[in-house]
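Disks large homolog 1 (Trinotate prediction) (Myxobolus squamalis), 131 aa
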Amino acid sequence: KKQYVDFIFKNGDYNGICLEEINKIINNNQHCILNVTQNAIKKLNENKIYPIVVLLKKPRSQNYLNNDNFDCEQKFKINRNAEILEKYYSNILTDIIEVKCFEDALNSVLYIVNVRQSDFIWNSNRTVYPS
């Protein structure tokens, strides 16, 4: 039986992010770029997978409230969710970056992965006491 870390409902179907597939990619010394919830990150940690977690956000001057692609309710939810993630889940975030466009986001994420991939593994569920 496959274990899933997250589900996405798209076009009337559920699509899952499978733990086995993530492990295959990791075993090939590659990285997954996933768009997952904070609960999925906790599930990954429970399975001894400690991801580099990057919160991408727009600068306050360019927030989603000025974007015409979303209705008012969607704009409110996007901003609220970003604020909640930053405030209450900062313990699972590796980095927070402000991006103005897709290219900035991609370049920033690639840079962070290159820098952080050699860091020691940090487990957000474990308290480390100084010796």
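The longest strand covers residues 4-10. The first helix runs from residue 19 to 27. ok done for today
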